[in-house]
Amino acid sequence: MSKQQPHEFLSPVWRDGIFRGRVVFVTGGAGDICSAQTRALVYLGADACIIGRKVEKTEAAAIDIAKVRKGARVIGIGNVDVRNFESLQKAADRCVAELGSIDFVIAGAAGNFISSIAGLSPNAFKAVMDIDTIGTFNTIKATIDHLIKSATAHVSPNAENLPPGGRFIAVSATFHYTGVPMQSHAAAAKAGVDSLVNSVALEYGPYGVMANVIAPGPIEGTEGMDRLGSSGFGENVVTDEKGQQLRPSVRGGSPSIPSGRWGTVRDIADATVYLFSAAADNVNGHVLVVDGGAWRRQGGFLSAGDNPALQYPGFLLAGAASSRKKTASKI
Ligand code: HXC
């Protein structure tokens, strides 16, 4: 049995086998969000190839994901850095050689940490731009010919209700919609990702490839939020004038988020299934934000939490620069 139960990575609305015969190639596929996306697709019939920098972590994730469906084929290819085009291309070639095709791609590899511009070296900014933006470009370049082939072979809709092919999703973020302190690097990098996908939609749409973005908000239980979440996205308590705790929303959760809760990996997996399914045959160049409306209030991020040390702009004026452990002024 896989580490996760189906209800943890997929809502119960999808039909079994809707991705049968299709192969998904996923960068960052061992990570919390992308492994759930992959798990959902595999559960619904796809085979998968997941790519990552860490060999053991990537191979172990592939083995675990394969357990969600009898007969699933899931390959984990470690030691692949999306900043290195050649290693990515080799991985794509291996995926096609072993699994037969690449029908869907998820560009999910990302790097992030909390730092102000003052705390960022030029190399730190470049590292995140390279992983997120250049890495997404490299992923497109390494897989686009396979996606065109798949889109040509699996035109959708079709009378047989066979699954589509030739779909691309980049996993982005929402920081750049408003600007978020301590995230200049990730915001710039994800703005670049969104822009790139616009061009893919325009240039490859005529070949049948549908390219879209999923922009998750804060997702509970992920490495990203463990690193970034010590802030106003969180569970700050709201009280009345007598100090009585007020119920922040009907879901009882997070007052900073209009929907009242943090996102889950299942939210993102469901969005992925939608965009790769025949239901999204004519959705191209779209950004699907899955965050409960959080970005509309994200001035609160790193500014309105209950931790006084994180009140904007006090923490900046006090000289806080970076979450890097060796930095004295630690966030
Ligand atoms: C300031 C930092 C830093 C920090 C690293 N650097 N951490 N600067 N504050 N906290 C600097 C380093 O000093 C170095 O600059 C430069 O960044 C590159 O660091 P390296 O460790 O040499 O690079 P590398 O090994 O390639 O690591 C890349 C990384 C790292 C991005 C820095 O954090 C990483 O590998 N992350 C991958 C996993 C990850 O981040 N997952 C979370 C993704 S969540 P100098 O000048 O010293 O050479 C996400 C979305 C979250 O992306 C959405 C939430 C809503």
UniProtKB/TrEMBL annotation:
Supply the alphabetized keyword list.
Answer: NADP, Oxidoreductase
- What Enzyme Commission number does this protein have? 1.3.1.124
Any one Pfam family match given in the protein's UniProt record, by short name:
adh_short_C2
- Provide the GO MF annotations for this entry: 2,4-dienoyl-CoA reductase (NADPH) activity
Q: Which Gene3D superfamilies match?
A: NAD(P)-binding Rossmann-like Domain (3.40.50.720)
Query: Coiled-coil segments, which residues?
Result: none
Catalyzed reaction equations: a (2E,4E)-dienoyl-CoA + NADPH + H(+) = a 4,5-saturated-(3E)-enoyl-CoA + NADP(+); a (2E,4Z)-dienoyl-CoA + NADPH + H(+) = a 4,5-saturated-(3E)-enoyl-CoA + NADP(+)
Provide the top EC class.
Answer: oxidoreductase
Among InterPro entries, the record links this protein to: DECR2-like (IPR045017), NAD(P)-bd_dom_sf (IPR036291), SDR_fam (IPR002347)
This protein's name? 2,4-dienoyl-CoA reductase [(3E)-enoyl-CoA-producing]
Question: From which organism does this entry originate?
Answer: Sporothrix epigloea
Q: Which gene encodes it?
A: SPS19
